[in-house]
């Protein structure tokens, strides 16, 4: 049936004598631009709502006064003049008034760096300058250098409010406003705080917005910021989280370094960046980069940890030695990094041939002696799709095993398990930007303002435009401040909560009966299960008031379009798959899948965790999630790769570590860009497992904690030193482009993998990453039609029928799901308590996660000047009453202990925590959160329980006798 469309009403006017037709409501400025007429502006930018404060864009409409064209709508029959002697005189006078208060041109913070001060550009057109004007300057308004990466010069500010709108309307951070009156008015951060001590998150959006020298980037590592025309611009993608923001690096080739970065346009990120993307790139130039292959010396056997921290002797200190002086107990190595002086004496430098020959020989010997099950490989979600593809191909074709995995096992493995079971695809069904089309959104088990800050900016924008935000999480993160309904449930009670929501939706008959009948299966069993979870019962389990449960159910059930976005607070549980099953069922029974503004979106953590999984870097699937235990799939890949393949599913990350402790388990490992010593749960067990390996080769850019157990260390390439494709959380496949050369003798990762493959007898002859991509795509139906050349500057979403002309599919499952029968399979779940519960000895619950400024094990971000300066130290976040009950003060060093070990860390009193709950970020080796966590796993996704274990927090004055259970034991 044809859908009626509403005709767009238009108006016709004259602009400089030329007839122009524009949609009703169009501003004069936009209409003029569409007609090719340029009107000067200062306060206006197409990315922000117009405010008309600078008056530079005034035009003559024949009225008594000139009109600001950026805010004045077009009217039928209007006659507009955009330039005349009177208009130019008004603009010139305004420019002279503004420029009289500016710093001298030779000292202007913007003109002397990027050289693109818009005000000075206008002044030049009017033959004006600070040096020639006779107008007096007002009193100085001050300079603020408190932020480590952004300079504030109030004298250069013209109060255009671009920074205010960038902060509020684009990023949704609401930090910048105005203070003072009259001439003393200036931009202000929070309550007129210095920028560095305000709630500013240093995303740099204000710098990108500012037309003058009021807000500018500071040079990092003394690399001067110069005009773009003098630098080499490389369009690439951010290497941090799964949002995959598009950016441009400006490279100073004379100095061999990046000068600065800025966001660029792309359908997803739309020129936005966070602090990591804009300022966190200098890790690649760290003097601690590995530049030559290393081989362990004979005297360093038998193997074991080499540094005091990794041996577990110095928890809580940022290096090694304690310093007893007050306030001086942070150790000798700032940054909490591996102490190279402690570790490197156990290794000697080697040539590439010697190192690679040794790797190939030892892995081949172990394979010959112990069979395929004796070999395992960990790949990396920081590497490209091509590198992930080649790595899993090496392990499978070279060693005949599917023991290959990566960090997806530690983030969304349970989500993927539930999604495959429920809808037949492990990828998201819609994009983060589709939130703009949703009437309601559930954000659950996620802190996107810290973990996916650019995606969160779209969530905050949507809420301002009317989308109802329901935020469900044990922590009251900053997202709670933007939520219409905040649900602070007890950790580990998600199944009970969502079952109760579905109970109410069914009771109120807010289900989509037609969708259930035609597009789902097993609804009756689901209905029977959730019938046992009325709000009053769920309230006793979750701690959420029954009326709040009813409010959430009604809000979701009555929404015409709704999306659920979730993070690792859903997946990183022993019930993670059940948690995701509930979310799939919730969307399905209300028909909230397959239309704009509806769907399921697990927010991916790493920049290429989606792509690495797509490329087959998981033990149960070949590329594109084709099961290794399916005969037809095995035959297809045997034909493609020309060797017999193992039909048995391999071991996962956590299973491989346990296997290493068995006499007939994994004996040899190849680790590419992974650091399980800090990223995996129960560090005491990981320490024993790594030491037990007969042979370990680590390929990385820095000396990591895991590398201390290596027999061979291979110096690899950072993200910035190679070409490759990366797939973000939206299913957008993008090109990452080489920015710099690798340092010393370090090499590109895929080339190293290929050299090992050749040495064990595989006939590989790839000459470029693009050649690998062209081999991958025919084996991956989801990537069909994509090519290296048609990805372009903004990448393409998959699936994509016509990438030459289309950006790709935003909303999936509009007609059928990817399951065999095309239906959504509803899988009911019963609530189960976490495996380890608090008791008298360990009465608190530990939650772990990320900070905005840091990334995973910190090997990159803690070597970034900006990021480590802003967040230099680990803290345990505690509810005020929990701290008071223990006599603990804010900033005090305390001990956090579990049944597996203890760390020393500074306490932070936080109103964001629930009573009885604590939060510790896991980036800091000197206070390694995963020394405390439990290694119990979800039975389906095999993901560890990072989000719940029992702990105690106590004063360091209390003697510590050690963990109550043996290393690796479960409570």
Identify the overall geometry.
globular
Strand order within the widest beta sheet:
15-14-28-27-26-16-17
Distance between the termini: 62 Å
Cα-based radius of gyration, to the nearest Å: 29 Å
Describe this structure in words.
About 25% of the residues lie in helices and about 15% in strands. By secondary structure, the chain is α/β, with parallel strands linked by helices. A seven-stranded mixed β-sheet has the order 15-14-28-27-26-16-17. Residues about 315-335 and about 965-970 have low confidence and may be disordered.
Which features would summarize this protein structure in a list?
single chain, 971 residues, alpha/beta, seven-stranded mixed beta sheet, six-stranded mixed β-barrel, 29 helices, globular, disordered C terminus
Map the helices and strands.
Blueprint: E1 10-15, E2 18-23, H1 28-34, E3 58-59, E4 67-68, E5 79-80, H2 85-99, H3 118-125, E6 143-144, E7 150-153, H4 162-170, E8 176-179, E9 186-189, H5 205-209, E10 215-217, E11 232-237, E12 246-252, E13 257-263, H6 275-279, E14 294-296, H7 308-311, H8 340-343, E15 347-349, H9 352-370, E16 375-378, H10 385-399, E17 404-405, H11 413-423, E18 440-444, H12 448-451, H13 453-464, E19 468-472, E20 485-487, H14 494-507, H15 513-519, E21 520-521, H16 523-530, H17 535-542, H18 546-558, E22 562-566, H19 568-571, H20 576-589, E23 599-602, H21 609-614, E24 621-622, E25 626-627, H22 631-641, H23 653-659, E26 668-672, H24 676-679, H25 683-692, E27 695-700, E28 712-715, E29 724-727, E30 732-736, H26 749-759, H27 769-776, E31 796-797, E32 824-825, E33 844-849, H28 865-870, E34 875-878, H29 880-885, E35 893-897, E36 902-909, E37 917-921, E38 949-955
Parallel strand pairs: 1-5, 16-17, 16-26, 18-19, 18-22, 19-20, 21-32, 22-23, 26-27, 27-28, 33-37, 34-36
Antiparallel strand pairs: 1-2, 3-4, 6-7, 7-10, 8-9, 11-12, 12-13, 14-15, 14-28, 24-25, 29-30, 30-31, 33-38, 34-37, 35-36, 35-38
């Amino acid at each position: 049936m044809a859908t009626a469309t509403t005709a767009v009403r238009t108006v016709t006017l004259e602009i400089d004598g030329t007839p122009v037709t524009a949609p009703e409501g169009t501003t004069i400025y936009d209409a003029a631009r569409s007609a090719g007429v340029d009107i000067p502006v200062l306060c206006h930018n197409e990315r922000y709502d117009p405010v008309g404060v600078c008056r530079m864009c005034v035009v003559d409409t024949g009225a008594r006064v000139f009109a600001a064209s950026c805010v004045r709508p077009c009217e039928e029959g209007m006659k507009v003049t955009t330039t005349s002697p009177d208009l130019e005189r008004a603009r010139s006078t305004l420019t002279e008034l503004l420029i009289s208060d500016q710093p001298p041109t030779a000292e202007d913070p913007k003109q002397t760096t990027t050289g693109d001060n818009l005000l000075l550009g206008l002044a030049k057109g009017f033959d004006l300058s600070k040096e020639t004007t006779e107008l007096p300057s007002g009193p100085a308004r001050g300079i603020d250098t408190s932020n480590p990466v952004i300079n504030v010069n109030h004298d250069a500010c013209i109060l255009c409010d671009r920074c205010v709108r960038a902060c509020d309307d684009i990023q949704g951070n609401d930090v910048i406003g105005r203070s003072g009156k009259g001439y003393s008015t200036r931009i202000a951060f929070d309550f007129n705080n210095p920028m560095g001590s305000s709630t500013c998150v240093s995303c740099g959006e204000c710098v990108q917005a500012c037309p003058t020298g009021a807000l500018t980037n500071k040079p990092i590592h003394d690399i001067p910021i110069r005009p773009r025309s003098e630098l080499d611009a490389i369009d690439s993608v951010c290497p941090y989280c799964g949002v995959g923001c598009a950016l441009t690096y400006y490279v100073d080739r004379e100095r061999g370094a990046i000068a600065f970065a800025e966001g660029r346009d792309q359908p997803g990120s739309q020129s936005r960046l966070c602090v990591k993307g804009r300022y966190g790139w200098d890790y690649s130039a760290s003097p601690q980069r590995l530049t030559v292959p290393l081989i362990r010396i004979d005297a360093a056997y038998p193997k074991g940890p080499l540094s005091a921290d990794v041996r577990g002797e110095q928890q809580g200190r940022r290096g090694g030695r304690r310093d007893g002086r007050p306030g001086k107990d942070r150790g000798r190595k700032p940054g909490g990094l591996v102490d190279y002086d402690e570790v490197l004496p156990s290794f000697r430098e080697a040539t590439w041939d010697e190192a690679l020959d040794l790797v190939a020989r030892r892995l081949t010997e172990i394979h010959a002696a112990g069979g395929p099950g004796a070999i395992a490989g960990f790949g990396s979600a920081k590497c490209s799709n091509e590198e992930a593809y080649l790595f899993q191909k090496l392990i499978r074709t070279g060693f005949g095993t599917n023991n290959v995995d990566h960090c997806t096992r530690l983030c969304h493995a349970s989500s993927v398990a539930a999604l495959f079971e429920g809808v037949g695809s492990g990828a998201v069904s819609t994009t983060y930007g589709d939130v703009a089309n949703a009437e309601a959104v559930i954000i659950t088990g996620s802190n996107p303002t810290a973990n996916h800050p650019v995606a969160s900016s779209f969530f905050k924008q949507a809420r301002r435009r009317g989308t109802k935000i329901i935020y469900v999480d044990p922590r009251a993160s900053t997202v709670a401040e933007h939520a219409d309904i905040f649900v602070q449930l007890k950790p580990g009670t998600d199944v009970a909560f969502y079952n109760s929501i579905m109970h109410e939706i069914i009771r109120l008959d807010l289900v989509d009966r037609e969708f259930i009948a035609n597009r789902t299966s097993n609804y009756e069993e689901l209905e029977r299960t959730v019938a046992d979870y009325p709000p009053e019962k769920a309230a006793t389990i979750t701690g959420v008031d029954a009326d709040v449960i009813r409010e959430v159910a009604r809000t979701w059930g009555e929404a015409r379009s709704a999306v659920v976005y979730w993070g690792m607070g859903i997946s990183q549980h022993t019930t993670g798959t059940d948690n995701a099953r509930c979310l799939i069922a919730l969307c399905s029974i209300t028909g909230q899948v397959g239309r704009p503004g509806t769907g399921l979106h697990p927010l991916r953590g790493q920049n290429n965790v989606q792509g690495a999984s797509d490329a087959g870097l998981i033990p149960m699937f070949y590329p594109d999630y084709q099961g290794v235990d399916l005969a037809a799939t095995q035959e297809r890949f045997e034909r493609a790769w020309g060797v017999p393949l193992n039909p048995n599913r391999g071991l996962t990350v956590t299973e491989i570590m346990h296997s290493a402790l068995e006499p007939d388990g994994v004996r040899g490992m190849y680790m590419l860009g992974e650091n399980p010593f800090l990223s995996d749960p129960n560090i005491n067990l990981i320490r024993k497992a790594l030491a037990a390996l007969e042979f370990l080769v680590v390929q990385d850019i820095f000396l990591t904690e895991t590398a201390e157990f290596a027999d061979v260390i291979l110096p690899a390439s950072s993200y910035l030193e190679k070409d490759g494709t990366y797939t973000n959380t939206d299913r957008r496949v993008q090109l990452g482009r080489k920015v710099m050369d690798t340092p010393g003798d370090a090499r590109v990762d895929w080339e190293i993998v290929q050299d090992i493959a050749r040495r064990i007898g595989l006939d590989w002859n790839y000459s470029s990453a693009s050649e690998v991509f062209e081999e991958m795509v025919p084996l991956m139906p989801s990537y069909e039609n994509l090519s290296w050349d048609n990805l372009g500057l903004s990448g393409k979403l998959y699936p994509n029928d016509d990438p030459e002309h289309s950006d790709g599919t935003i909303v999936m499952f509009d007609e059928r799901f990817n399951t065999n029968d095309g239906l959504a399979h509803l899988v009911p779940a019963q609530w189960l308590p976490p495996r380890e519960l608090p008791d008298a000895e360990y009465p608190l619950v530990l939650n772990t996660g990320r900070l905005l400024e840091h990334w995973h094990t910190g090997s990159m971000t803690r070597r970034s000047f900006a990021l480590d300066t802003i967040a230099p130290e680990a803290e345990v976040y505690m509810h005020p009453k929990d701290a008071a009950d223990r006599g603990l003060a804010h900033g005090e060093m305390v001990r956090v202990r579990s049944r597996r070990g203890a760390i020393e860390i500074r306490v932070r009193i936080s109103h964001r925590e629930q009573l009885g709950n604590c939060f510790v970020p896991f980036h800091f080796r000197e206070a390694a959160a995963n020394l405390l966590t439990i290694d119990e796993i979800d039975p389906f996704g095999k993901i560890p329980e990072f989000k719940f274990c029992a702990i105690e927090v106590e004063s360091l004055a209390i003697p510590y006798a050690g963990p109550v259970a043996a290393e690796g034991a479960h409570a």
